[in-house]
Amino acid sequence: xxxxxxxxxxxxxxxxxxxxxxxxxxxxxxxxxxxxxxxxxxxxxxxxxxxxxxxxxxxxxxxxxxxxxxxxxxxxxxxxxxxxxxxxxxxxxxxxxxxxxxxxxxxxxxxxxxxxxxxxxxxxxxxxxxxxxxxxxxxxxxxxxxxxxxxxxxxxxxxxxxxxxxxxxxxxxxxxxxxxxxxxxxxxxxxxxxxxxxxxxxxxxxxxxxxxxxxxxxxxxxxxxxxxxxxxxxxxxxxxxxxxxxxxxxxxxxxxxxxxxxxxxxxxxxxxxxxxxxxxxxxxxxxxxxxxxxxxxxxxxxxxxxxxxxxxxxxxxxxxxxxxxxxxxxxxxxxxxxxxxxxxxxxxxxxxxxxxxxxxxxxxxxxxxxxxxxxxxxxxxxxxxxxxxxxxxxxxxxxxxxxxxxxxxxxxxxxxxxxxxxxxxxxxxxxxxxxx
Length: 436
Description:
Order of helices and strands: HEEEEEEHEEEEHHHEHEHEHEHHHEEEH
Structural class: alpha/beta
Largest sheet: 8 strands, mixed
Number of domains: 2
CATH class of the largest domain: Alpha Beta
Mean pLDDT: 92
Number of helices: 12
Low-confidence stretches: 14-27
Number of strands: 17
Oligomer: single chain
Distance between the termini: 12 Å
Helix content: 25-40%
């Protein structure tokens, strides 16, 4: 074989990339997936089923469907089609997650530091993940505003944001907030709080300030909009921290709270009841099995690992049956990764729940429709239904099998991960370099 120059290899590689890109984007948003075993999640499986996608929306589900001209056909015989997997707790695609010097930082916003070039986005796609809830870290008792993203690899950050999702505010309790000043800034004086009771107290203090701030603005707006507003009426001073907490009290934000120990989770639920704010889910929640009655009464779900417990003191009383038991009690449970690596195998994590007492259908719900409900996007994604966005993943075996792999990941009808295509590209590149 004639030896190729670096320039010719580059040109060949670029040509192959453009050709592959053209193939991937054929009739973007228009697909017909044929002969798959469809697992809709909200309905019974459909053997040998077809899904027709037009303009990124699921238009038809059935058998022997016809596609309009120009529609890409994907033959899925012998494979399983599921809704795109949703990760309810991660930190990928961010260029910053913690503020170590202060305990209270609700003014920061994750949407302002999205990194669309984070390779973890592509890692997520390789495991069938189409959406993530990417969050502020747990060094702060009250952290920042989180953001929900679609894994649209190669797109600018503004196209990743899911604006329809619940806007959420991060809270954290336990070891991380007690120790973060020592950990992040060794040698500095320990910041407040240094105890669990201090964490609870500082949240109450800030919410009381936010309540007063909200009342002050309400009085101002009432006077400003009255028939005879007072002369020289001035608005209250803006406070960015209190603005965010006031939105929590107004119901415009949902709390997501990092917590492990049963007692501190109950304390946080009591704070929510006292101040009237909404809690979308408790994160990690390793002792949730102890307080299922309280969680059910509050209508609060949990976002958890499946069997990664006892990795620190406050996780010592976690049990592998936590997610399964809470699901059986009627609590809304999702399985998360909290990792830029584990995100690629969330289907394996959910599959473990079968060992701990759930059916494969119940396990699959924890990474699809349950996750969508916790993020407030169940009307858009989380199941395969006509009218929903075509966020889909195609697996070579049942997604709860230990031997399965994701072959294709689709977001709004566009293929963002194609395992077969990647193999062809790798082989072409290897051949161009004179390899085997």
